[in-house]
Amino acid sequence: MNPRLYAVEVLLQLLPGAHSPRSLTTLLAKPLSDKLSQAFACELIYGVTRWYQCLTTIIQIHLHKPLRKKDRDIHIILLLGAYQVFFSKQPDYAVVSETSNLSRLRYKPWAVGLVNALLRKLYQQQNQKNAHIAHIAHTQVEYLNPKLAFPNWIKNNIERSYPKQATDFYQTNLTKAPLTLRINHKHISTQAFLVNLLDNGLQARCGELTNTSVTLSESTTPVHTIPGFNQGQFTVQDEGAQLCAQLLQPQPGERVLDACCAPGGKTTHLLEQCAELAELVAVDSSAKRLTQTQENLDRLDLCATLKQAAVEQLDDWWDKTPFDKILVDAPCSGTGVLRRHPDIMWLKKAQDVPALAQKQAKILRSMWQILKPRGKLLYCTCSVLPQENVELIQAFVAEKTDAHVLTVNIPWGITQTVGHQLLPKIGAYDGFYYALIQKN
Ligand SMILES: C[S@@+](CC[C@H](N)C(=O)[O-])C[C@H]1O[C@@H](n2cnc3c(N)ncnc32)[C@H](O)[C@@H]1O
């Protein structure tokens, strides 16, 4: 299939206006057979999803009359074209002819001329030196302001919560996420792993937060080609996510619970960090994701007790033996990982946040019941929204007289009244929140 057409069909099922919008993870589950075509299609899909709002404004300015609802596919073809005009290195003539031809492939030959003319106009304005036209081109650049790319439910929250960091936040989330690995020190040291990478022509650097993390210079490196993959020397995991096991510090003989475990990124890390646990119980509500957890455990030759259940429904899975340590990696808005999942911007809505916070509080209260006295619980999310993080933990410790929030030492990010917030950083970690709570 033509990669541009594939991109249009994916975007039709995701962007605002889709009947029942689906996530990129679901939509990209059936990739094109040719790897280069798939990589090109993904570049377009992720780019248009990130810049959707800005590109729509630019197109609307240039259209004489709005497109009809039933011509949403033509709107998406125009978005795809505009994205290529501003961000791709493809030659102008190829972009104009290949993109306008998509209208024909969507059985709307009447739109070929419209797309062709609009893209030519954008290129012309991009290239013109004439003062008047340059002014218009400048206006376009203004519309490509990172802040304008985000929906209001995110923007309002960020402006209110992190006014000083807001500009960096927008910029970071429009930049590609890095490829970070967690090195399994049971097999190889970080230094030896780095030397192997260099010997194989791969550039990389150590992380800033953990001694297990290595970030590759080239984020598109296929994971299975990295030396040590088959030997289980590493797992793909963001550096912020790697902090969780480090903060919880599982010890020999302890019974540990990974409360929302799938697909097992942190489950495998807890086991790599301490092989002599009494037991690691890992619960998740999704059967499909638990299968992935088992596959990850198998690849790394690790063992955990997996249970499929809504973890807060204790009667469905708990054997009445309390835990020494509990990790609650709660389901959340994902606003700390927007650069990896830009579809979140259009799939989630403002009203989802209070509903998520309610679910998180329910899970947290339930997990507190099954934590031993003096036990520790690490609550974390890949969210940057205070409602899911600091505000939720503040309310929890106000309600529980036996809950005491411990200070965590993290050199970067923002120390909150309770817990610690990382905001995503270009070329480094994702946005994460951590609160380590001890039961008195
Ligand atoms: C942030 S992800 C967990 C990522 C995982 N800890 C890792 O590091 O790979 C949140 C998980 O919570 C699961 N989940 C959502 N609601 C749940 C519930 N009520 N009980 C248990 N798991 C739940 C989702 O299926 C999802 O796998």
Query: What is the SS-derived class?
Result: alpha/beta
CATH overall fold name of the largest domain? Rossmann fold
- List the bound ligands: S-adenosylmethionine
Can you tell me the CATH architecture of the largest domain? Answer: 3-Layer(aba) Sandwich
Number of strands: 13
Structure, described:
The protein has 440 residues and is α/β, with parallel strands linked by helices. The chain has helices spanning 3-12, 24-27, 35-62, 72-87, 92-105, 112-127, 131-143, 152-161, 166-173, 190-199, 239-248, 265-273, 287-299, 344-347, 352-369, 390-399; strands at 179-183, 204-206, 213-216, 234-236, 255-258, 279-284, 305-308, 323-329, 371-381, 403-406, 414-415, 420-422, 432-439. Helix 1 crosses helix 3 (35-62) and helix 4 runs parallel beside helix 6. The relative contact order is 0.09. It binds S-adenosylmethionine. The site of S-adenosylmethionine has 19 residues, from helix 12 and strand 6.
Element layout with pairings:
Elements: H1 3-12, H2 24-27, H3 35-62, H4 72-87, H5 92-105, H6 112-127, H7 131-143, H8 152-161, H9 166-173, E1 179-183, H10 190-199, E2 204-206, E3 213-216, E4 234-236, H11 239-248, E5 255-258, H12 265-273, E6 279-284, H13 287-299, E7 305-308, E8 323-329, H14 344-347, H15 352-369, E9 371-381, H16 390-399, E10 403-406, E11 414-415, E12 420-422, E13 432-439
Parallel strand pairs: 5-6, 5-8, 6-7, 8-9
Antiparallel strand pairs: 1-3, 1-4, 2-3, 9-13, 10-13, 11-12, 12-13
Helix pairs in contact: 1-3, 1-4, 3-4, 4-5, 4-6, 5-6, 6-7, 11-12
S-adenosylmethionine binds next to α12 and β6.
